[in-house]
Amino acid sequence: MSTLGSVAPSPWYRSLTKAQWKALLASNLGWTFDGFEVFALILTVGVALHQLLDPSQYPLIPAYAGAVIAITVFGWGLGGLLGGVLADYLGRKRSMTLTILAYSLLTGLSAFAWDWVSFAALRFLVGLAIGSEWATGASITAELWPDKARGKGGAFLQAGYPIGSILASGVWLAIGTSGPGAWRYMYLIGVLPALIVFWIRRNIPESPHWEASNKRRRAAYDLRRRGAALSGEDAALVRFTLVDMFAEPAVRSRLFLTFVMSLSVTIGYWGVSTFVPSYVGSVAAAAGLAAPRWAALAGLVQNIGALIGFVCFGFLADAVGRKPTTIFFYLMCLVLTPVVYLWIHEIHVLLFSFAVFGFFIQGTFSWTPIWLPELFPTRMRATAAGFIFNAPRLISAVAPLIAGTLIVGLGGYSWSATYIALFYILGLIAAPFLPETKGQPLPEADALARPRGEERVPQTA
After folding, report:
1. 418: helix, coil or strand?
2. pLDDT value at position 450?
3. Under a CB-based contact definition with an 8 Å cutoff, are residues 37 and 107 in contact?
4. Region for residue 179 given its phi and psi (left: phi exceeds 0; alpha: psi -120 to 50; beta: otherwise)
5. Other Cβ atoms closer than 10 A to 313
6. Per the CB 3.0–4.6 Å rule, which of 67, 80, 289, 375 could disulfide with 131?
7. Structural domains in the chain, sorted by start
8. Whole-angstrom distance, CA of residue 239 vs CA of residue 157
């Protein structure tokens, strides 16, 4: 019998305010449309280049397509660094509206490209804006959501990316046969996310964590202008955030460990997952089945598995902790890769296995919006998150090239994917050295220099 007067704990979602749900919705929509833009490029780049290149260059379309995608990913990496810095100096809300507006309008302009150079240049600018948005959304969600539910908030944010990929597939299925200019319609549809900017400006609050940190930053600048000698947090606040990340040993250590983890999962994903449709198509062709149909199904089930994996990661992270959940997902990526590429050959079982594969190999990215914001102080939170999430893309852009070389050298996909998956070992080595942050307040290392009597930023609930 329960104790008299005891009250059952309320469900986690009842502790959230409308403002917190709206902030998550805005961040999720931003990342959803990022996923839409990236997958729209993957779906349409070949069709677009048939219009933008001279027929004599058609045999080189795969090379041109690879160049356009690589340029976009490179812009994404640079944009991630830029977006984090903007979010730390301009504010989370303002940066989110600017980046969503930028990639929406630039995507629309992509529809008017007149040759492959203009197309690649516009996609580079779209990549800059896409990369800029994630760090802002991850930071504002972490700063507005309560400690005990922050993992779920970060996971719901990350789940937007496969939703965007699925939406892009559906839209292209509907308009892809409307003529040779269908790819232009796809990019014009990409302007629609700009409409949510007006909703964000009216409904999303600014992060109180950022507002308090920005107030202290302005005070530190005033002290420097008056000629005062700065020390402690005041000295840190006037440093450029990209420099500030490397100035303190404790922060520098976390930066290195999380960079290694992000690099391992990014190389693992791009080097292993990129070839899933092609691999399944080759297995289907060997069985006398329609390769394009099975390749498309593989991409679909993998994204559905990823969507479930993103969300489940958040619930596990809040239940058992960030560290054990992250290690478990990394370990499963390492184990499942040889299973699906080496040991399963029956096409129906293979298709199901790639749904499970997507659950882990994409779901593991959820540690970035959940754990990263909890490891760095407010004054540099978005800069650090943007750097860790995006800088590895500048390096991992070579992963598909390495994988492609291995495929040719080893005579197939199976051993190539297995070797590339060994990069997950780096994440398994680095993760145990990071602190567990489950249910803890966001770090306020910048609180050391806070004037006496100034209250701590209240935890939103």
Report:
1. helix
2. 41
3. yes
4. left
5. 30
6. 80
7. 17-215 (1.20.1250.20), 235-434 (1.20.1250.20)
8. 30
